[in-house]
Amino acid sequence: MDVGFWDSIPIALVFAGIVLFTVFTFELGYQIGNYARAHSEKHSDTSPGPMVAGVLTMLAFILALTFNMAASRFDSRKQFVIEEVNAIGTTYLRADLLAEPQKSELKDLLRQYVDIRVEVSQNDNIDDAIRRSAGLQQSIWTLAVSVAKEEPVVLNSLLLQSLNEMIDLQEKRVNAAIRNRIPGSIWVTLAAIIALSMVTMGSQTGLVRTRRLMQVIPAVLAFSALLTVVVDLDRPSAVGFIHVSQQAMMDLQQSLQQAAQSLSR
């Protein structure tokens, strides 16, 4: 689950690629329209405007759908960060229910776990971060289960409950960031409709032999910027310009470090 080839492409190059693709398909349509006009014995006065409007409406619909999917997924990723922070914090507090030395050992493992969770958002090697998280999860779970077996009381079951929630949320974050992406079929459909829209617009300008660059260029740039935002929203947080804030996790990291320092004095 390392960052794939497409995700490794800088977002600036993604924007440039979308612009080039849009301009190319528009120019292709223009040449088609210009050729059709030059070889037509009788020019029709009927404007293809309604057809262009229909194609652009389809483009707007699929683009809105794609943006909504990416934005919804991005919001879920933000929410999962908050929930994971709360679960880790609760587990850390419930570790006080244990006797020494298990209490100190569990808290130390949780501090290491938080350090890794902070590094995840800054590390392109997602596989490595997931493996390290899973290794610490196993150590934490083994310790908690061993304590619960020795003293199977209700308080220890509360610790296991919060610990289980913490582990589940890590898996939810992985699914939201890596596996739950916009389907490839939607990207293909979007690319096809973009090409169809630009060719149709270009052919219209070719039929009337006016490029109207002052209107076309801003529209192409605006559309490309919007689509680039959708692409960036769909990417893992470790790449791109749009990131899920890890401030809550960093605040927890600082809080746990301060708690450890106060106990060591």
TrEMBL record:
Keywords: Membrane, Transmembrane, Transmembrane helix. The keyword Translocase does not apply. It holds the Pfam family Bestrophin-like. It comes from the Bacteria. The chain crosses the membrane at residues 12-32, 52-71, 182-201, 213-233. InterPro entries: DUF4239 (IPR025333). Signal peptide: none annotated. This is DUF4239 domain-containing protein. It comes from Marinobacterium nitratireducens.
